[in-house]
Amino acid sequence: MKLFPFLRPLLEFAFAVGAIVLGLRFITSFFTKAGQVYRPTFLRQFYLLFWPLLCMSVGLPFLVSFLYLGTLSAYELVLLVAMAAVILGFSVPALVLHAQYYARNLHTTLVFAPKQNLLEVYEGRVLLPFARRDLVRVEYVTCRSKRLFWSNYCFLRLHLSTGEVLTLTSLLTNLAPVAEFLRNTNLEHQQRWFCFL
Predict the structure, then answer these.
(1) Can you spell out the DSSP letters for 69-127?
(2) pTM score, whole prediction
(3) Tell me: the pLDDT tens digits for 73-103?
(4) Are 119 and 178 within 8 A, CB to CB?
(5) DSSP per position, 55-67
(6) Most CB contacts within 10 A, which of 8, 114, 118, 139?
């Protein structure tokens, strides 16, 4: 690749850093207790953003062609607009959802141990106290389709008797076990095409 002589060392460096991070994560998983504490972690965010970012990174170089609008034929322009619609249509909703969820749960910590009948929510280091009897209503909102880039984004809203509303997003963890744990409360399962907060 004579055009990009710097690209190969960058890719090798990125691969080496990724391998080291995954290796350390694998090794430290042997010494940590099974996850009961959930926060927005790098690996969870990478899991949710992998396909949208891959789509953007593959498609954005083609969208640079918009800079040459005056030299494009009508056929090329139609193809370029169609490609832009597909790339942005698949990626942007997931990126917007991720940004919303990140802003909402950046400082949230969920402690969840169903075998110990434990569900606690912390904002920063402050425990938000509630018990099951305090839950007036629980909304569990998931995506209608399971095949879209934003299908893994869902959230739980816990409506407390005090009027306070706690929002737990899929940025913390897979919320299906938490919803199952709360099935005996007034749980409402809703499905939407986009799970905006």
Answers:
(1) GGG--HHHHHHHHHHHHHHHHHHHHHHHHHHHHHHHHTTEEEEEEGGGTEEEEEETTEE
(2) 0.74
(3) 788 778 888 888 888 888 889 999 999 999 9
(4) yes
(5) HHHHHHHHHGGGG
(6) 139
